Amino acid sequence: MSEVMRRLVALLRRLPGVGEKTAHRLSIFLLTSPPEYGRELARALQEAVERVRPCAVCGNLSESTPCELCADPRRDRSLLCVVERVPDLMAIEASHEFGGLYHVLHGVLDPLKGVGPAELNIEPLFSRLSGEVREVILALSASVEGETTALYLRQRLQDRGVRVSRIASGIPVGGELEYVDRGTIGRALSGRREM
Amino acid sequence: MSEVMRRLVALLRRLPGVGEKTAHRLSIFLLTSPPEYGRELARALQEAVERVRPCAVCGNLSESTPCELCADPRRDRSLLCVVERVPDLMAIEASHEFGGLYHVLHGVLDPLKGVGPAELNIEPLFSRLSGEVREVILALSASVEGETTALYLRQRLQDRGVRVSRIASGIPVGGELEYVDRGTIGRALSGRREM
């Protein structure tokens, strides 16, 4: 295998869920497809990397800061919904059950893996709490790490006198928010309880 | 989601085994990782697409035509091993049981999916049969399509007076050659039988 192919395989291996075999298959698919496809994908990736960044306000991926959601005057600025990752935000948006703003942590607290508050988008959350914000909704996964993160955030948010709630029933224990159906997400949002 | 992200997701979806959800996850991983990673991957892909091509002689992926294997004077030019795809060639090379040359079909005959001889790298195989080639070894998967392809090739190769064999025992029925262990591939090569 040539050096340039080996490098491609090594970089593909760093993608989530892609092992040695899959990286080989992907690179061979890319190199035996019409070259326009590989060129187009490389160009789209480069362009996305240069233009799409986490919003400096909420952490959502966008071509602008503040992002489209943060800049939308129709959103309810008294409600902040905290999610782990961008796909969670997309899943909640797709449920059409929430009209407030978001805050993306880009992960959960996981001390065993060395993920503390400093590794997440947490401090910028506290600096958003001045004035308008009335309630912070924690829409985190029902996993051990999600629970840990929720408890940590509740403590720190209540110290600042803000109301904290957590999305309710419907999320299967141990399940990942991203994979829950829209209806369940809607019920979980409307059934949230104060912490 | 911005237009540039939507395009990236659409292109990622065309990769084998990547659906809507996975394409989203991959693109979000790429755009929340340090931008150097995405840049490097885009550059490696672009470079590979421009420099790595199927060898005009055997169909193996290489930066040169003829490829390193076709150009290697130590390889036995009287033996041609026919494989479906490049990973199969790699798997056989890793078994260190074969010192001849290869021919990559880039697929198997599959009439139901509209894949006939013209869609595969088959005609160039026949133009390689002049003089030196003594035996063609069919190292195809033990699937229905692999069998169909083997029977078709046997007919056409025997018409040209060349000896045709097929790799033997060890390949589990319905199994994909790429995933067979090296020892089994070695046994299958040495135990091949004339068709």
What's the short version?
The structure is a homodimer of 195-residue chains. With 195 residues, the first copy, chain A, is an alpha/beta fold.
Describe the structure.
- The structure is a homodimer of 195-residue chains.
- Chain A has 195 residues and is an alpha/beta fold.
- Chain A has 2 domains: 3-51, Orthogonal Bundle (Helicase, Ruva Protein, domain 3), CATH 1.10.8.420; 74-166, 3-Layer(aba) Sandwich (Dna Topoisomerase Vi A Subunit, Chain: A, domain 2), CATH 3.40.1360.10.
- Chain A is built from 8 helices and 7 strands, in the order H-H-H-E-E-H-E-H-E-H-E-H-E-H-E.
- The first copy, chain A, has helices spanning 3-12, 20-32, 35-51, 68-71, 86-95, 123-126, 144-159, 182-190, and strands at residues 53-54, 61-62, 76-83, 100-104, 135-139, 163-166, 193-194.
- A 5-stranded mixed sheet of chain A has the order 4-3-5-6-7. The first copy, chain A, has a two-stranded antiparallel ribbon with strand order 1-2.
- In chain A, strand 3, helix 5 and strand 4 (100-104) form a beta-alpha-beta unit.
- In chain A, helix 1 (3-12) packs across helix 2 (20-32) and helix 5 (86-95) packs across helix 8 (182-190).
- The radius of gyration of chain A is 20 Å and the shape is elongated.
- The termini of chain A are far apart.
- At the A-B interface, helix 1, helix 2, helix 3, strand 1 and strand 2 of A face helix 1, helix 2, helix 3, strand 1 and strand 2 of B.
